[in-house]
Structure formats: C-alpha cells, structure tokens
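User: Continuing from earlier, I have the next pair ready.

Assistant: Great, send them over.

User: Here they are, in order.

Assistant: Folding the first of the pair now:
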Amino acid sequence: MNVTDLRLVVAVGAAAAAAVAYAVTVWRRQPRPRVLLRAGAVLLAELLVVTAAALVVNRVEDLYPTWAALGQRGPVIQRQPTTPGRLDATIGRLARGSPGPVALAWRPAFLASWPHAAATVVTPADYPQHPEWRYPAVLVLSSTGDGWTDATVLAAARRAGPAAVVVAVRVPGDGDPSALALQVAPDLERDVRVTGHHWGLVASAGMQPVARNVVGRDAVRFPVLAVAGRPGEITPAQVGPPSAALPAGVLAVRVGPANAGTATEGAAPQAQLVAALHWVGTKLPAPLAAPASVLTPPAAPRPKPHRAVVHGTPTPGAGSGSAGRHGP
C-alpha cells in the first residue's frame, strides 16, 4: 500500500474518528478513570487526527509518492515550481527534419536507481507548433523480451497517431516495476507539456500484473488501460482475481490487431502496440490549450417595483430611463 493510497487515508481517518470517540467517552466516564488513561486517550486521538490530516495533504499535493521518498532511502525528487516543457527546445530541433512524431531517449532523475530500465518519449506531430498546449500522456510498459523497442514504439506512434505524449518504459525484472511506473509522472510533467490527470496506460501481456497494480494505486491518473492481446481481440482485461477488482471508473481491455494477417512473427509486437495505442487514444481527452480567462456574466437586471399612477400620465422616456439605470 502506497503513501498516497486512498485506502490508507480512509483507514487512518476511521481510526482517528474512533480514537476521538473513545477519548470523549473516557473523559466523561463517572467515576473518572486515572489521569494517565485520560491523557493517553487524548494524545492517541490527537496523533491519529494529525496523521490523517497529513496523509490527506500528502495525497492532494503529492509530496511523498512512495514510502522510500518518505524515508529518504532513495533519490528524493524535489518538485520545484517551474514552467513545463524543459525538453521543448530539443524536441523542436529534432522536429525540423521530421514532419511526424518525434522520439528521444529520456533519462529522468528517478531512473538513476534503476540501471537496467530505459525510457523513450514520443511527442505528437503538432507538439512543436502549439507551445501553449498540454497533452495527455500514454504510459507504455514492457520488458526487454516483449520486442517493444524504441523503433517499434516510434513506428507504432506514427501509425496509431494518438494526440498524446507516449512514454515507453522498459522495466527491469528486479525491484518493484509498479513503483518505477508511478515515479514517471513528476519528471514528465516538468520535462514535457502534459496534463496532470486522465492518462492512458498500455502494457504488454507480461506486464499485465504490473499495469493492474499501477492503476490500483493511481486510478485518477490512469483511468484507461489496454493490455496487448491476440489478433481481433477486444475484451475486458482479466487483470486479477475477482476479489482484486479495479477501482470504479477504470476502463480496462485486452486489445489485439484487427486481423491475424497483421500479426506475423516480425510485425506482431508492433501490430499489438499499434492496436493498443489506437484504442487508448480514442478514450483520451483532447489536448488542453492555455487556460481561458474566467468570464463573469453580467448581473441580471433587477425588476423595478411597480407603482400605481394615480395622477397624470407617464412620460414616454420614463420606461427607457429606468431600464438604462438597471442594465449591466
């Protein structure tokens, strides 16, 4: 269970509520118990309330995404306020000779502790032309034996054409691949112009359990999951036993190439990845332009109280004058 896991927040919050109720009961009990018991109940309630509040703040601000970051046993990512798109200049130079998607090797700070891992970023074709846009992202998880190389990822992105930033991570067999996948977001949000939520997740068949773990830990960021399947297959992904269901609102399928003819021995990995990327791309939101100004609607005119005219006749301009005074 991760530090930002909703189940942990709910459990500590429930324990804090129970401790507060117990402290109130002990304090009001007659005859009053010993001072040590009352003080202990109050201190326990305060400790759990503060812990629950800290977990809520940590989940909202994403200060410590993992237990390793909390204990500082590994490299801690310092998230300083900065303008996203640190790699935009490099992407712009690479895009001058390539009209389509651009791929570049990505070596963020968190990969320093994963010597056998590798990551590649593929940006959409129109990424350099819209510096004010933020794009959804698609995280692609595979192992070295799946055949999803850098060239395969770039070719699949060109064919599938999702309006999203594709981040392909080949995870090592040792360690915790789920923790690695969850560490992608902070560095990616700094280096490339991506949105902060509603990303897609694509996984090879071998990475299916890892993908399920990632979605279970961060369903807000990864509400869409596609696992590479057999040719012609689009079925709900069985990513765990019935007792380990995915969080509510997550859409997960196994998807394969449209027909068996596209899945020859050499083209099978690319065809699987194209099918998964295409399906996920249809479930993602459009790129987000620069935030629009918040327009405040004009106040509705307040109706003027009706007055009965006893003497005389109202002048023709009186009505228009009152309307002008009450207009926006």
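And the other member of the pair:
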Amino acid sequence: MSTTRQGAQGAVRVLLAHRERIAWHHHTFHQFIHPLRGVLQISTPAGDWIVPPHRAVWVPARTEHAHRAYGATDMRALEFDGPVDPLGSAQPSVLAVTPLLREAVAALTDDTGLTAGQRRNIERVVLDQLRRVDVLRVHLPLPDDPRLQDVMALLREDPAEPRTLAELGRAVGASERTLSRLLRDRTGMSFPQWRTQLRLHHALTLLAAGASVTETAVACGYSGPSPFIQVFRGAFGTTPGTYAREDATEGAAGPVRNGEAQVTSRD
C-alpha cells in the first residue's frame, strides 16, 4: 500500500493491491471514501458496504471500520471535522458520485500544486455536491442473531447456494417463519432481498478481479447472464459488462509518494 496526503483538511490517496486490507480503526473526523478504480468493501460491526467506481461511502466520525480492496484500487479519501457534516447520518452511507464530484475529489487528492485559494474553492464544490447527493441502499446488514448468522455464513461461503430459506432453516435448526421474522426485524429486508444484495456484492468483487459476466452470473447463482444483467442494471444503473470495461480503463494510477498508512494485510 502507498499513501499520499494532500492539504490541511486531509485529502488522501491510497493505492491498494487486490485483496489488500486496511485493519479495523476509527477516526475523530468524518470521512468520504471514493475508489477512482477498483472496488472497496467497507466493513463495520453492523454490516458491509460495497463501493465500486462512481460510488462513494460516507463514514461518520468514530465509526469502527475496515477496508478490503478487490482489484487494483485507487482509493481517494477526504476528511471533514465533526461540525462539517453535510449528510447528517449516524451510519455509513453509499453515495452516487456525479462527474463533477468525482473530478473535484481527484483534484484535491492528486498532487497538482493547487494554491490555498483554489483548494478552498474546490472544497466548497465538494460540500455543495454532498448536500444534494443521492444515498443508495447497497448495505449488506449483518444481524447478531446466531441462527441468522449461521444461515448467512452458508450463503457467504457460497453465494450460488440454491436452497430456500426453509431448507437453510432445517440445516441450522430454525423454522422458515422464525428466520423470516428475525431477518425483517434485524435488517428490514426479506430473505430474497438480502440474498440478492449478497450476490451483488460478490459480483462486484468478481468483476473487479477480472471474471467474465457469464462466470460471475454462474458464481452468484443465476441461471445465465440475462437475469444477472437485469438485476445488476437495476441496482447499479449499468450492465456488468459496461461496469467492468469502465473500471479497467478509468483511474490509472500515477506516481504516489510514501506516507502515513494503516496496518494492512493481504490474503
């Protein structure tokens, strides 16, 4: 991992290798995290957020979190003091990144020799964009009930697992009705919604690693590319093929100076 820090407000660029991790930590400031290239998984005790290019995640101050990269990832992060909170959210949120916001973040995190006045102007653009940004529901909640955790462990191990909730319930010693009620109570999702979210998260990591659309569809439990493409487009506004091509061509990494870094590992 290599890190560059720009400016007093904390504009940071971090290059992460495939499957590289940033260990659990928290900040006293809010953080806006955006991968110009690659896919980031942001984990908290409450669940996971998957962040592809054209998306970002807002991490409120003092939120325990960890990062994991899928594909060579060019991560950009902006830091905001506690009173500067354009989202006002107590939980992490995935955000749609407009082209203007993307370019502003890139300018602040690149070593471009900005003057103090230029930097302040761009920071105002970022704040204005964040006040009107769309918040997306791509959170994968991880409930604390042991029965649900057992079911979810089976699905996370193999997202293509075809068993119904009733069949999975028999495997963990709980009824379908109980599991369905618990899932609604703890996550606000139905079982099909949760499984679809899990499969979409898995799909993004596979595409970032270079898997084809067909390979990804099969690995995520779809009968073929067509139903997978339909679900993917509904969630992300683009097809998986287009997403993979854009990820491969955008955000090529430039030179980065060594700087401060969290402890990381790769597996």
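Worth noting for the second one:
Residues 2-138 form a domain with the Jelly Rolls fold (CATH 2.60.120.280). The two ends are 14 Å apart (CA to CA).
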